[in-house]
Amino acid sequence: MLDKPTLTDAAYDKLFRELQALERDHPELRDEDSPTARVGAEVGESHLTKHTHLVPMASLDNAFDEAELAEWDARLRKLVGDAVDADGYCCELKIDGAAVSLTYRDGTLAVGATRGNGTVGEDVTANLRTIADIPRHLDGTGWPAEIEIRGEIYMTFDGFERMNEERVRAGEDVFTNPRNSAAGALRQKDPRESAKKPLRFYGYAFAVPGTDALPFATQWELLETLASWGIPVAPHRKACPTLDAVHEWARSVEQVIRAELPFAIDGGVVKVNRLALQSELGVVGGRVPRWAVARKFAPDIAETILLDIEVQVGRTGALTPRAVLAPVEVGGATINYATLHNFELVAEKDLRIGDAVQVKRAGEVIPQILGPIPARRTGEERVVQVPTHCPVCGTAAVRDEEEVASYCPNVACAGRRIEALAHFASRDGMDIRGLSYQRLEQLIAAGLVKDAADLYTLTVEQVLTLERFAEKSAEQLVAAIAASRAQPLARLLNALGIRHVGAESAKLLARSFGSMDALAQATVEEIEALHGVGHTIAESVHDWAHDPAVRDLVARLAAAGVRMDEPRAVAADGVFKGMKIVLTGTLPTLSRGQATELVENAGGKVTSSVSKATDLVVAGAEAGSKLEKAEQLGITVIDEAELLRRLGA
Ligand code: IVH
Questions:
Q1: What's the CA gap between 479 and 620, in Å, rounded?
Q2: Is 364 in the pocket of ligand 1 (CB under 6 A)?
Q3: Hey, whose CA ends up nearest to atom 6 of ligand 1?
Q4: Are the C-beta atoms of 513 and 490 separated by less than 8 Å?
Q5: H helices of 26-169, where?
Q6: Which of ligand 1's atoms lies nearest the C-alpha of 40?
Q7: Which of 94, 238, 507, 629 is catalytic?
Q8: 203 alpha carbon to ligand 1 midpoint, in Å?
Q9: Which of 9, 17, 59 to probe ligand 1 with, by most ligand atoms within 8 A of CB?
Q10: Which residue has the higher pLDDT, 624 or 400?
Q11: What are the C-alpha distances in Å from 439 to residues 112, 421, 508, 560?
């Protein structure tokens, strides 16, 4: 398959450079089909239409250490001299995802395409439209009539892990790294499939037709401008006046920042900051620009010993193995554990406790075991047993014939707690901003929270007793939890983590039954009668709804004021019926998605730009030009609290 590489990136880079050197020494061997003559993936036979980029999307040369970076710098100084020193360099993270170009016409997203072979990509507009990071309309002002914004589609480790967990549950193959799964998700036939994937976007470049004047003179300003237009720009960028400063930035990314990032990078990108100098330096051989270079980091594969295999309990009770490793440094961070997804994989790789193993920081942070090194076996290694009991509560494990995982059937199992709560609060669940895994760990450790219902009784005073909370953050957390009470039933059902029920089935169930009560009273046959719900899901939902522990939890959630029904598709009599509403700035507790959902459920339409036709503007922190415009036009501006008040939430 196209998105499943057979070589590691490091091995590919090495071969590629050998080939480049060979072709340099023996030009007669050069071939137009050589990988050195290509940029990225070829556009193969496909279901997608082609899209020709305004300006070809280039690729980058690599510098593997400081010396190679210095060589790059020396080469460009030969051409433009010390002009580089005026604005220095712009350093950015090299996001490890799939490159795309977004064409905006008059500020509106018109076409989105993959990079393809650099000149021609594939039109994936419908799929890109499902990504919340990509604005349909640019904010602010000053954008040229037609522009292509380039950037990277990526997945966070968290999103990637959760997606893989879902895949394991559904009996599907797991993806090996976030980049491949992002690339695959982007090319899905059905945008609804892409929409289910946790895809994100960061912008970093820009192309305009002809010689249109640009509203910025440096790469640094370009990034700032993109951000002001509502395009997400990657963190940890830095304008460096000297090459020494660039080296220092790269060291800090490699040694410190990389391990803390929630997404994968495959190095840094160093760019000559002044755009006029960039055009002067130009592109070599149609493939790579002289003005930018990828600063790659130390290889991320190492050898260590598999000390043990622990059993972890997931939120749905799935018992999954986790490798305990003799601490080893890989790619700048010490790793102690690796994920193993399921016991079948352990058997497939023939991993034994005591084995020497090769580990890789797949996409930088989540370490993975590539496999054992059998030649190093002493005979003392132990074969791993599939667990027969839950390691936390001791309940006998259940094994579904169709499934790879065995699981703990006890809904009240403490081992399931944190995972279940993290899922409850997640973006696809109740979407509670700021309720991170770490914070849940703190809340659980302090005995403040045992299950989802406990969240709704938390007080600011209680949260303040925890470390790393200040008055403001505690208030925000409690407010964000309170706001989630208004989430529709579909989200609640997904958030509660019913086995076999994902976001889509949860929506279907919520829309069909309308309320928790109706769902709880439904028979297996009634549930199964829904189009798109099979027997497995129906049985699982029915068992869940009749579990006394579940009934108790749901009753406590209802008593805490959590919404237990699904709003009608469009509320004909909603408070915002027929109104055009603009959301701008960051709201204190609601995410943009939540606010949009609330407005739509109340019959309103969320539009992106403020005009005379706008009825209402909801403004949060750092609301910029839209707020100004609303004030000029005399349009009513309200804050989140007022929005919630009007919604009766
Ligand atoms: S600049 C001519 N900036 O890396 C400039 N690329 O190996 C080319 N990438 O195709 C792109 N993060 O997919 C640039 N901050 C960044 C990047 C970045 C990731 C990717 C991009 C490019 C590939 C080149």
A1: 15
A2: no
A3: 94
A4: no
A5: 66-80, 84-87, 125-128, 157-169
A6: 10
A7: 94
A8: 10
A9: 59
A10: 624
A11: 37, 11, 32, 21
Q: Is 92 in the pocket of ligand 1 (CB under 6 A)?
A: yes
Question: CA-to-CA distance for 335 and 304, rounded, in angstroms?
Answer: 10
Instruction: Name, in order, each residue with C-beta under 8 angstroms of 114's C-beta and a sequence gap of 6 or more.
Output: 98, 99, 100, 121, 122, 124, 186, 187
What residue ranges define each of the domains in the chain, with the CATH number in brackets?
Answer: 9-296 (3.30.470.30), 301-383 (2.40.50.140), 414-486 (1.10.150.20), 489-559 (1.10.150.20), 580-647 (3.40.50.10190)
Least confident of 186-190, 304-308, 469-473, 597-601: 597-601
Residue 200 three-state SS = strand
- For 437, the 3-state DSSP assignment is helix
User: Which residue type does 499 have?
Assistant: R
Contact partners, residue 2, CB within 8 Å, separation at least 6: 41, 44
- Whether the full predicted model's pTM is greater than 0.85, yes or no, is no
3-state SS class at 72:
helix
Q: Is residue 629 annotated as part of the catalytic site, yes or no?
A: no
Q: What Rg, from alpha-carbon coordinates, does the chain have?
A: 27
Residue 382 φ then ψ, to 5°: -115, 135
Ligand 1 atom closest to residue 289's alpha carbon, by position in its atom list: 2
Q: Is the dihedral of CA 401, 407, 409, 411 positive or negative?
A: negative
pLDDT in tens, 307-365: 999 998 888 788 989 999 998 887 667 888 988 888 888 888 899 999 999 888 755 45
